Amino acid sequence: MFVSLEGPDGVGKTTQVALLVEALRAEGRDVVQCREPGGTELGERVRSLLLDGDVAVGDRAEALLFAAARAEIADEVIRPALAAGRWVVCDRFIDSSIVYQGIARGLGVESVRAASVFATDGLLPDRTIVLHGVDRRGDQPDRIEAAGAEFHRRVAEGFLRLAELDPARVVLVDATGAEDAVAARVRAAVDGGGA
Ligand code: T5A
Fold this sequence. Notes:
alpha/beta, 5-stranded parallel β-sheet, about 200 residues, globular, Rossmann fold
């Protein structure tokens, strides 16, 4: 089973990825935890480049670098884990590209989706949980967090549209409230229930 957690910057994904992995392991499941961009040598280097405010990155280069990092984590980490019968829980995946690059940067949902599907040779999560409703961004923004209020408004709206684009896979989860309360909603959403 391949699960991705998604949502705007600072919505609490990283916290919820850790809690979900803990819950699944407590149920006896063998779980691989990873993040995007990252999770491989190449991916972590690409992450540094992409989040560095001192490196100029055009919109199409940005989309292709995210896709390249995704190609590597799909080949090196996710496919082998799934083939071994393990669960994978990933902090962001294809939907971040669709929303940030396709919608918020304006590159287009279809072209960005096509680049990512090429990168992963068609690998998609079985379940994608989109957290929404809060913004707990810190006060030291990276290059993408510093993109401005209008950009982040498009990101937040784009994530809400995702569930309409792919209702069989994507579940919206309310991220307001205490960590444990959100974690219970996330765990239920893995089994298909929205909140
Ligand atoms: N990106 C990524 C693209 O543009 N395209 C792509 O294809 C991909 C893959 C990656 C950046 O790259 C972009 C998106 C991003 O801008 P990232 O580190 O994955 O960066 O993303 P961020 O959202 O910036 O990660 P953050 O760690 O900043 O935010 P999270 O993970 O959403 O939030 P989290 O869990 O770190 O929580 C934030 C704070 O809130 C607290 C936490 O302790 C933390 O201090 N918190 C709570 N406090 C109270 N109640 C709760 N329920 C709380 N939950 C968390």
